[in-house]
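Q: What residues go here?
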């Protein structure tokens, strides 16, 4: 190709790519293209009726016959998020070297800023990782504790929150002390008191879940952080089940570190995570992976993978846009509305027993119930085989119960159908 022709070709290619929006599915007013009529657009900010939530549901697609109450295991990306991510993938594959190494620098920072704004923190406190597990490993491996130092964990910790401490610290003589929190505590103050009593002069870190995956209980992170910081103790939070379910101001929450998989309640593409470290606490952290750029002193050093799946990275930005188009407060209110609606429909059935605390201080859009006298694995099988309802059986901690997740694509009619199925199986 002649030099002049090559120059024209590259100019046309660059111009074509530059014309693409960062989030191609969304317009200036963050409108969504409805599934039932691709020419029709609606403004999602002006309505909180059940009809509105039916429209939100239409932005998600599941396999035929599947009723998905298992968001706490893995979320689904809404159709606009899928489309945006796939378009990013096409852009990358059309010119790989350009977009992997520098072509999306500004777009990556816009995504970081969008995530930071969503959690009410500074963008210099947010790293984009792969998942909660990576974040917990990053935290647990960073510290040079001395033999006899102590880390508090809990009996409700996910294995991905517990094992990193076991692998990276126990072999050095660090003591892991397990705080045993009952499935149905009387109040959040009762949980705080358990942690207050467990702290010793050797305690260096408190590592705990914001919402536990076992029975959906919310831990009082703000109150525990206040106690910890008065004693010079750092607080690391597994936020896999809380990020996106309700409003979270990470500065107000008060923890030092917060790690979450954005593919659950944030509905991002799979394999993307959010990692928060408050500025004063970043000095404690060491990257899991090092390569060129390892001397960067910013939080970006924690996400320095050289090549990575950037369409998913930018897809997280599209997911934040999607959630903002609905409204953070509306999502927050909806989580508690669905939780309380579900509980009200089952409260008079003595053959169905709740294993999740009732108070809004202690639970939200994850609820766990036992069908009395029946093995949870059999009930889970019957729910799916007969009704197409997918959920998570929970056998540990004496639960023998089913975990149901009420994400924004769940409607009250969906809950009515679930409740009817539970009544039938229980009887």
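A:
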């Amino acid at each position: 190709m002649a030099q002049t022709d090559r120059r024209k070709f590259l100019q046309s290619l660059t111009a074509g790519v530059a014309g693409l929006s960062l989030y191609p599915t969304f317009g200036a007013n963050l409108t969504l293209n409805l599934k039932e009529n691709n020419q029709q657009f609606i403004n999602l900010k002006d309505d909180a009726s059940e009809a509105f939530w039916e429209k939100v549901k239409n932005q998600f697609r599941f396999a035929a016959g599947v009723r998905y109450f298992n968001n706490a295991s893995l979320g689904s990306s809404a159709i606009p998020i899928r489309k945006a991510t796939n378009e990013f993938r096409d852009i990358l594959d059309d010119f790989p070297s350009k977009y992997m190494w520098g072509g999306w620098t500004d777009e990556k920072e816009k995504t970081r800023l969008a995530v930071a704004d969503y959690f009410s923190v500074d963008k210099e406190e947010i790293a984009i990782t792969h998942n909660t597990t990576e974040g917990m490993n990053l935290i647990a491996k960073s510290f040079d504790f001395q033999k006899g130092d102590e880390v508090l964990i809990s009996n409700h910790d996910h294995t991905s929150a517990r094992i990193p401490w076991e692998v990276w610290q126990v072999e050095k003589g660090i003591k892991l002390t397990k705080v045993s929190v009952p499935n149905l505590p009387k109040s959040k103050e009762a949980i705080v008191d358990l942690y207050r009593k467990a702290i010793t002069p050797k305690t260096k870190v408190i590592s705990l879940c914001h919402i536990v995956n076992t029975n959906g209980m919310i831990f009082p992170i703000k109150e525990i952080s206040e106690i910890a910081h008065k004693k010079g103790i750092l607080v690391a939070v597994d936020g896999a089940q809380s990020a996106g379910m309700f409003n979270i101001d990470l500065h107000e929450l008060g923890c030092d570190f917060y790690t979450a998989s954005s593919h659950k309640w944030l509905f991002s593409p799979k394999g993307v995570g959010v990692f928060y470290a408050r500025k004063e606490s970043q000095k404690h952290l060491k990257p899991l992976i090092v390569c060129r750029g390892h001397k960067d002193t910013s939080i970006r050093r924690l996400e320095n993978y050289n090549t990575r799946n950037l369409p998913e990275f930018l897809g997280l930005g599209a997911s934040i846009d999607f959630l903002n188009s609905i409204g953070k407060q509306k999502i927050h209110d909806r989580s508690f509305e669905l939780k309380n609606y579900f509980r009200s429909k089952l409260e008079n059935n003595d053959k169905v027993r709740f294993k999740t605390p009732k108070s809004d201080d202690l639970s939200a859009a994850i609820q766990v119930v036992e069908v009395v006298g029946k093995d949870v694995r059999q009930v889970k099988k019957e729910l799916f085989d007969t009704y197409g309802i997918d959920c998570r059986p929970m056998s540990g901690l004496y639960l023998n119960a089913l975990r149901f997740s009420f994400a924004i694509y769940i409607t009250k009619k969906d809950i009515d159908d679930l409740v009817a199925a539970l009544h039938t199986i229980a009887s």
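A: Context that may help when evaluating the design: Confidence is low (pLDDT under 50) at residues 1-42. The first strand starts at residue 32 and ends at 33.
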